[in-house]
Specification:
Layout lengths: L1 H21 L1 E7 L2 H16 L3 E8 L1 H9 L5 E5 H8 L8 H13 L3 E3 L9 E6 H7 L4 H9 L6 E3 L1 H5 L4 H8 L8 E3 L2 H9 L5 E5 L4 H4 L2 E3 L12 E6 H6 L3 H9 L4 H12 L5 H11 L4
Helix pairs in contact: 2-15, 4-5
Length: 293
């Protein structure tokens, strides 16, 4: 009888331990504002759902990915283009949907599951001051190309990397069939591009689509209507073993992912980088606004 009781107790304890492990989630994040917001938001959200969350934000991209593959990180938000180009070394040009499907398939072989992508795509973009874009009737990169080809005077600010890279400035001009002389292009650090555009020192600047300075400085991002720029769609990526242990996690994270797009992320980034609000407060306010806390 004593042996049976001991056995039942051991089974109960084992079940209890398994349940606890299933509810433990380690959430990672990279070392820039957008990622820190997402990591904090995910931590608060999952904590409110009853998970035991271990938050590890502020990591380098390659280190974070390696930590997830090694089982040290269960969940973090990744960009489709980063996985495609940096982690899977695929260089061919793919549409956003093709990019997502390819990384989903390739990373599944490594024990990682891509959940539903958000509408936030933190890729390169060209932007103008909103009033200037409206005045000139330039909404898309095709409109911009037409303006240049019609001999409108437009000056550009680019970072040095994009100007020189093989999939950068020259291929962009070729794709949209326009040509800008060197004298009309200024090369500078990324941060200075935003300042130069804001201060009307140039007409067009290279930006990142979810940067908080876009709404803060009233910039208009020109639509990449021919799909030149690589897709960097933002999506939660989870270890497959973690999903199997937590069957509700996919739907819960997909619900959060569905709330994010370029404008939303730019606004959240601006609250931290421009308005100097704390990451914790910005994340909490967003979750409360969307009834997730």
């Amino acid at each position: 009888m004593k042996t049976l009781t001991t056995a039942l107790t051991s089974i109960a304890l084992a079940s209890s331990v398994s349940l606890a492990n299933a509810n433990e989630i380690s959430v990672g994040g990279k070392n820039f504002t957008e990622q820190q917001i997402l990591a904090n938001m995910t931590t608060q959200y999952l904590d409110s759902l009853g998970y035991d969350v271990d938050s590890r934000s502020g990591m380098g991209s390659a280190i974070l990915r390696q930590a997830q593959e090694n089982g040290q990180i269960d969940l973090y938000w990744e960009y489709t283009g980063t996985s495609l180009i940096n982690y899977n070394e695929i260089s061919e040009s793919l549409s956003p949907d093709e990019t997502y499907q390819r990384v989903k398939e390739l990373d599944a072989e490594k024990g990682l599951t891509w959940l539903e992508p958000s509408d936030a795509n933190n890729t390169y973009a060209l932007a103008m001051r909103e009033a200037a874009a409206e005045e000139r009737g330039i909404e898309t990169l095709s409109d911009l190309a037409e303006a240049v080809n019609n001999d409108e005077v437009l000056t550009f600010a680019l970072n040095a990397e994009f100007y020189a890279r093989e999939d950068g400035w020259r291929p962009l001009m070729e794709a949209y069939d326009f040509r800008v002389g060197r004298s009309d292009v200024s090369r500078m650090d990324t941060g200075l591009v935003y300042q130069a555009l804001r201060d009307e020192e140039v007409d067009v600047g290279l930006v990142f689509a979810t940067d908080g300075r876009i709404p803060a400085f009233n910039f208009h991002v020109l639509e990449d209507d021919q799909g030149f720029f690589p897709a960097y769609a933002l999506a939660p990526v989870v270890r497959t073993e973690t999903l199997e242990a937590n069957p509700d996690l996919a739907d819960q994270m997909n619900k959060l992912s569905a709330l994010l797009d370029d404008a939303t992320m730019a606004d959240l980034n601006a609250q931290v980088d421009v308005e100097r609000e704390s990451i914790e407060d910005v994340a909490e306010s967003f979750l409360e606004k969307n009834d997730l806390l």
